[in-house]
Amino acid sequence: VCYFFQVMYALLMPALDPLSDKAFEFQFNFMKSGDAPVILEMLTKNNFLPSADAATKRSAYLTVLKICKLLLTVIGHVMSRVTEDPQSSPPQHIECGAPDGNLPLSPVAVLRNALHSIPSQNTEYMLRSVALKLAQGLAEQILMASSEGERARPMFLQALSRELPNMSTVRAVIRLAWASSSGNLQLLNASPEELHRMHDHRTATRLPDTEDVLVCKEALEVLTITLVLNPKCLEALVKDKMWHTFIIDLLLLCKNRSVRMAAAEQFLLISTWCSASQQPLQFCITLLFTVLGTTVVEHAAGSHEYFQLNYAFMSSCPLPNAETLLNAEINWLKMVRENVKTTGDTQVDEAVLEGHLGIAKELLSFMPPDKKYEIGSEDKRPEPINLVRELVEDFIFPASRLMLHLQRTGELCADQAVPVCSTPLTTNAAFDLLVGLCVACAPNMRLLVHMLTDMFYSDRDEPLEEWDYLPPVGPRPQKGFVGLKNAGATCYMNSVLQQLYMVESIRVGILASEGAAVDLNEDFSGEERLEGEGNMETNENECNDEKCGAEESRKEYNIGILKQVQAIFGHLAYSKLQYYVPRGLWRHFKLQGEPVNLREQQDAVEFFMSLVESIDEALKALGQEQIMGKILGGSYSDQKICKGCPHRYSKEEPFSVISVDIRNHSTLLDSLEQYVKGELLEGADAYHCDKCNKKVVTVKRLCVKKLPPILAIQLKRFEYDFERVCAIKFNDYFEFPRDLDMDPYTAKLEGEMIDCDYDEISKDICTKYQLSGIVVHSGQASGGHYYSYILHRHTDGTSKWYKFDDGEVSECKMDDDEEIKTQCFGGEYMGEVFDHMLKRLSYRRQKRWWNAYMLFYTRLDVEENSLIKSLNELSLSDTQLGTMKMPPAIERSVRKQNIKFMHNRNQFSAEYFQFVRKLVSCNSAPLIRQHNSEKLNSETEELLMLSCQLASRFLFHTGFHTKKTLRGAATEWYDVLCHHLRSSKPVRSWFAHNMLFKHPHRFCEYLLMCPSTEVRSAFMKIIVFLAHFSLQDGPCPPPMIDAPLILLDPHATLSDHLLHAVLLLLHKEVADHGRHLPHFFTLFHMYASLGINEKTQLLKLNVPATFMLVALDEGPGPAIKYQYPELTKLHQVVSQLIRCCDVSHKCQSSQMSQ
């Protein structure tokens, strides 16, 4: 049966050419046979393929639905042709939108309008073409009462009487879509409650697969067509609770996004096209709002389609209770804002927040300007809403608000800069709501422009000078880690510091230490001297030494190291930046008493030992517990067991790193075993027993007496070659386990019991460790690169490996055995090498020059360690919004840097650039006239002025200087700006005086100096456009510009002053910037091409004579310094203007007598 259906559909819609004559013959015969309704009956019969398996039945239903879609589409087009419209207007093509609710449409008009959009013109073009072709022939036969169409006539009569398709067909299609949407087609005949239960996340058993999704999509499209043909069914469904549940299940509860998208599309078509009234549309809006605070919150992850459909419904239908709904949305947004202020988190899903912001924006479109003002910026009410201010200061730019306060007062607010909208989607939604508040509402626009100008474009803020600017430092990854910047060869510092920071007890303990960072005004941001960073080498440290001289004691040095490590840890913990610049440590750190060259690589273990020692010495000097020794410090037992006498000797030696040999050993266990293996001292090497006062045969052993919580192991890959007088590196294969038991290498097993060891050995100490960190060295001994792999344990018990490579921190697959072998064990591998003799790639055995150098193992009982517990308890004090205890000076530095970074990032985000474009475009003159009279009134003038002011400040302060990937096409900004310049004379005057004449350097900056051709072209067009439209604005007094010559003509227009200012560049700037001359002269060529008035104006300004002098290097300024100046456009301008003049009195005849 399934095969039969597929053959039938292939004949009805052949893939090669469904519009061919042969295909049409079969299609036409099928439709006029009168047996086509049998296909519809297959959907309603309970015994359809009762013995078929699920896959066969699903495939059969898919084909039946496709045939039904063709059949019903043909019936619809036939009905539209054979039925006369009482309104007697021919059907017109409507691309989108709903029927106008003010004009009642007849059922035929509704059907014809619906068939323009159903089925979709984008995806069902061929089916629509076939249906139209068939409908034309079938309609003719029915109208002519032809005998050939006799068998099909009852089917069309049923359709015309709204009995085909009937309610049973509609319900069958609904069940088919409902069951397949949850992947449970076998429950086709189940109750609505059972079908709903399959979508409940608590009882859902499976997800729909690809075939289920196809069946569901097809069923939804068939459902739309059935309701178009029989609108009475829709009227009945609106009152049916099953229909309500069905809509919510497919739109919100369904786990498959493709199904939710298809459902949203079809429900929109059903609600807007299937009825002459707006009752279905209003019903759907009411239904969707009833679940907004319940089901939507529970299924927030799949709510995007729900909100998109809600927006579409609201834009298609006026809402009588729009104001009530809007007030409820505003109250909800204020509740979320309070959550952030009290807890630091919205406590709602990002998708739900985005949706509520979008709903508020759609509801605003129903509000008049007075209501927008009341909501947005009116502050005379007892309880003002002030939505504009709250959106700017709390939802989007809290950091900029704090930055503004810092600039004005020099004080750092205690408030946290936590935005309510923290993702691009929610930020865009908040921006769109701001734009909606400002459409045709001058007070809101005035407040918003003032706030943005104060935050980003005031006199305190220096305009960008760098071209093609992008923020150099990115943001910290969401729930990720902060990197450390490399000063040239400081990767050895970074890799070790990250390992220490990721040990919780060390991190918390060091940050909680007091007495090192005591100066509240000390800056730890690492931002100073950014431009000279590349040259920071030994001499900087030497200068530091000269200043301090010999007065700096070892104690002060150690405390300084502790302070800098605290600063690093504080920024790694709470910085919002991608990486931190540890400039303080670079300056302060010394190795073996000597400053380090930041471009010279040092040994990571040597740095580790020096750092650990300095930190513990500093803590000791400050009278605090030596944390590094507690966490990283262990001890050896150096045993000597005399064989010739009964005496035993033991000496304890502390260690912070165990160094093991990798040569002649291939595993860590072998190397450790060799490390603690005893050595027999006899003969000349015999040990002198002090108690016997003689040399005796002795066994000398070295074993671990005390195991630290964090065990650091060095793999000795470097050795000094005295023959070659250089260090060499061994890349030998050396593997190490993830789980290490140190019990075999402790004193209680290695050697005999010694009295002085008894107390230590008798304690029950855990000896099992887990690998938690690896420092890798890549390269050779003379130079290379260090980076770290670190295992991070989450609070939920899971763990994940991260790679810390200077400023880059990323997840990695180090939990995979093959990956750790490839990245850390060294050895050899087969790699492709280009053979210059054979001229092709060949495989050769090569050394892995990247391999592990340091290993960090964490003892399994470390979480239960009393030290960590006490430190964790200590960290709970003096906290704010989850910030662990740290010196106030460092906390202030971190917060200040975060505020500066977030403030800077706010104005250089793609979302902000899009917002500014929308905001300055939403009140252009054509849009404003839709809300006001044809003549521009004072409020409209103000909106145009505010839009132009914001756009101008944005573009000349930052926009034109940014990279195109952020800014977009410069010509688009030209279009935005020129809309406002064209509409208003005051706007043109303000722009010319405040953006150009007040900053005369901009003419040279954007016409001659700018490296971007696109920006130069846009600025040139702005000048031409402004000069053209201001030509008829009347006389204008001379602008106050710093120029050697000012146009003093009392009749001079703004256009004259503008062109004169550009011509003044010929006195100096053109000679110095000859590379971009074409744009300078193209400006005049473009302006002259606008008309006779423009040409006359240029002639009055003596442009031809001036340009000829420039071409001859005779003035008005110095000769052009560029080697090959491009003067083609200059010649074109001169030619164009000369040809406009009457030069007959200058002419002289070739005949002397004439």
From TrEMBL:
One of its GO terms (cellular component) is cytosol. GO terms for biological process: cell migration; protein deubiquitination. It holds the Pfam family DUF3517. It comes from the Eukaryota. InterPro entries: DUF3517, Papain-like_cys_pep_sf, Peptidase_C19, Peptidase_C19_UCH, USP, USP_CS. Belongs to the peptidase C19 family. PANTHER family: UBIQUITIN CARBOXYL-TERMINAL HYDROLASE, UBIQUITINYL HYDROLASE 1. This is USP domain-containing protein. It comes from Timema monikensis.
